[in-house]
């Protein structure tokens, strides 16, 4: 069994190690046409408040979807260790601008371009050069935002030829602790 503390340590490692398989997370929201999933990069982990931190452009569909329904699901997969982690929780934008500014400062200059176009992500591209032609650093900072997910529950699945193991960890607010429950894999 992986304890909740061990899972959080793995998540912290994934946020710091660019090659960790859990660094790229599938984020699932409820879109207008039904469930919507996309890959996001795990930037920070705050175990003390059960928070996962991601960076995004404030004009993306995922933020409109989160505004309509803040319940999200996340999926991590490690093929080498045959481990799956499913998480559910509540997503919300960071409102402390000092925190957002600190995050922005840590974004490499080359990556800041991703936030600096006048057209929103997912807009039809008229010419192949149009995506980066209108970049400005001020525009990039205006579009950059921090998305947090407060984790309420997670399930860890360890696939093993001899015996799979699956555990659900649920946050119990009254106890201020995680409660673990073994499950049939």
Briefly summarize what is shown.
The protein is built from six helices and nine strands, in the order H-E-E-E-E-H-E-E-H-H-H-H-E-E-E. It has helices at 4-16, 61-68, 97-106, 109-112, 130-133, 137-143; strands at residues 24-31, 34-41, 44-46, 51-57, 71-78, 83-93, 144-158, 165-172, 177-183. The model has no long low-confidence stretch (mean pLDDT 93).
Structural account:
With 185 residues, the protein is of the alpha+beta class. The protein has a single domain (4-104, 145-183), classed as Pnp Oxidase, Chain A (Roll), CATH 2.30.110.10. Helices cover 25% and strands 41% of the residues. The protein contains 6 helices and 9 strands; from the N terminus they run αββββαββααααβββ. The longest helix is centred in the N-terminal third of the chain and has 13 residues, at 4-16. The model has no long low-confidence stretch (mean pLDDT 93).
What does the secondary structure layout of this molecule look like, with pairings?
Elements: H1 4-16, E1 24-31, E2 34-41, E3 44-46, E4 51-57, H2 61-68, E5 71-78, E6 83-93, H3 97-106, H4 109-112, H5 130-133, H6 137-143, E7 144-158, E8 165-172, E9 177-183
Antiparallel strand pairs: 1-2, 1-5, 3-4, 4-7, 5-6, 6-7, 7-8, 8-9
Low-confidence stretches: none
Using only C-alpha atoms, the radius of gyration works out to 18 Å
Task: Indicate the CATH class.
Answer: Mainly Beta
- Class computed from helices, strands and strand pairing: alpha+beta
Helix fraction bin: 10-25%
Shape: elongated
Biggest sheet record: 9 strands, antiparallel
The CATH homologous superfamily is termed: Electron Transport, Fmn-binding Protein, Chain A
Reading the helices and strands in chain order gives HEEEEHEEHHHHEEE
What would you say the CATH architecture is? Roll
| Share in β-strands | 35-45%
Oligomer: single chain
CATH fold call: Pnp Oxidase, Chain A
Global mean pLDDT: 93
Measured distance between first and last alpha carbons? 12 Å
Overall strand count: 9
Number of H- or I-type helical stretches:
6
Number of domains: 1
């Amino acid at each position: 069994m992986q304890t909740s503390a061990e899972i959080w340590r793995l998540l912290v490692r994934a946020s710091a190690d660019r090659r960790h398989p859990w660094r790229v997370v599938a984020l699932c929201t409820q879109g207008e046409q039904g469930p919507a999933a996309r890959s996001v990069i795990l930037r920070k982990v705050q175990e003390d408040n059960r928070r996962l931190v991601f960076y995004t452009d404030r004009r993306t569909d995922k933020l409109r979807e989160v505004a309509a329904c803040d319940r999200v699901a996340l999926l991590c997969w490690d093929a080498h260790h045959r481990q799956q982690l499913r998480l559910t929780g509540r997503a919300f934008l960071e409102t402390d601008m000092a925190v957002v500014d600190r995050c922005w400062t840590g974004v490499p200059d080359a990556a800041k371009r991703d936030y600096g176009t006048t057209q929103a992500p997912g807009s039809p591209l008229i010419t192949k050069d149009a995506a980066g032609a209108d970049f400005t650093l001020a525009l990039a900072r205006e579009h950059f935002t921090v998305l947090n997910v407060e984790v309420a529950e997670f399930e860890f699945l360890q696939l093993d030829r001899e015996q799979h193991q699956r555990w659900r960890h649920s946050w119990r607010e009254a106890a201020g602790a995680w409660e673990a429950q073994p499950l049939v894999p």
